[in-house]
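User: If only I could read backbone structure tokens as easily as an amino acid sequence. Those tokens are not coordinates but codes from a learned vocabulary of shapes. Could you go through the record with me and say what the backbone is doing? Here is the record:
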Amino acid sequence: MRSIHTAIATILFGATTVAATYGAALTTPVGDVEVVQENAYGTPPASARETKHRGDGVVYQEMLETLQKSGMLVKFTDGSKLTLGANSKVMVDSFVYAPGDASSKALISIPTGALRYVTGAMPKGQTTIDTPTATMVLRGTDVKIQTDGSNTLLVVEEGSVTVHNKQTGQDTLVEEGDSIQISSTGFDSTDEDETGDPAVDDGLQQTKKNGANGTPEQRRGSERGSSSRSNGNGNSSGSSGNSGSGSTPG
């Protein structure tokens, strides 16, 4: 009888430990808010929506949200940066990072709106962005993404992105300097290199501690993007292939 009681106690202790570990994971920040423009919100798991301020933490499975003329910049623990444009919703579905751990991974989903994502120290190929029409795997990347739920615009400013079209089942590789529309008709190459959202395209202005305006956020690929747009010839330095050919870095 004692052995049965011991086994039950062991099982209950194990379940309690797992529950405590999972609960801690849900409340441990995986990133911090660096900039807020106008109003931005976050809804952590099993919690009410709360207003986000500079310095607030962002946790696993938190829904981030902006309103009209709003924006938010989040820096994750691996150094990657997520910029939300106006009227956007983004879910941090998964974010596990440990320096040198090849199993580290991030999954960010955006049901609607616009974002910019600049990868940090996360291993290449371990960051995924999901929209209603596409799954995109980033490799050393600076990307802009916009979706209305039916179509997805992907602009790759640095690195490369492997894209899976959820509606057609097709896959393709989008290289640095290329842009595509992802929809029910497949992949369509486009000359668009901006989402039309100022926060995503130009960056959010970071404020100083005294409340004064600071410099715009710095990110990889910004100089190349500005130079490309200033040429006025519509050409970019990346390759033109979006047909799934080519090689991926890393």
